[in-house]
Specification:
flat, mainly beta, 5-stranded antiparallel sheet, 30% strand, 167 residues
């Protein structure tokens, strides 16, 4: 069996199996509130038995189940975004993503935004948002770089510590 490249994104639109044995016993209470739904979950890793799912601060583990994979757009729950204004039709503002949903009838992801305690009723698409959260990561490298090697004799090098005036 070939495993998917993680992280990936998708929805659990229908109850995936009879019973609840596919849900990690410690996560059943949380997972039962999350699906089936059109929420777009981030599947982050596979530990050999369970996939680890995340939706903002909510996380749970499931054994492999059928789900609808959707195209990742780079925006996650909790990210800060700026709306792209359009003349007088759309207001431009900075907000936080608090919901990500997949609309089957349109075949696309939509985002719910909030600013402080104010939740906006409008749904926004990826092309109406600019991601402000910095998601760049610096990877730790294995091993150290070798020290620099000088070419030539040591006497040929300039001694920076010598502050004497050559004139």
């Amino acid at each position: 069996m070939q495993w998917p490249i993680l992280p990936d994104y998708g929805c659990i639109l229908r109850w995936p199996s009879d019973g609840v044995e596919f849900i990690h016993p410690e996560d059943r209470e949380v997972a039962l509130r999350c699906f089936p739904s059109e929420r777009v979950f981030r599947r982050e890793k596979f530990d050999g038995e369970y996939y680890h799912y995340r939706y903002g601060e909510v996380s749970f583990r499931l054994k492999p189940v059928m789900w609808l994979k959707v195209r990742e757009e780079g925006i996650d729950v909790g990210d800060q975004v700026e709306t792209i204004g359009l003349g007088l039709e759309r207001e431009r503002f900075v907000a936080q993503v608090w919901g990500i949903y997949y609309l089957r009838r349109k075949g696309r992801i939509v985002y719910r935004l909030k600013r402080g305690d104010q939740q906006f009723a409008n749904l926004y698409t990826f092309d109406e948002l600019k991601l402000l959260t910095d998601k760049s990561k610096v990877e730790a490298r294995e091993g150290m770089h070798p020290p620099p090697q000088w070419r030539g004799d040591h006497e040929d090098r300039l001694d920076i510590a010598d502050e004497s005036d050559p004139s």
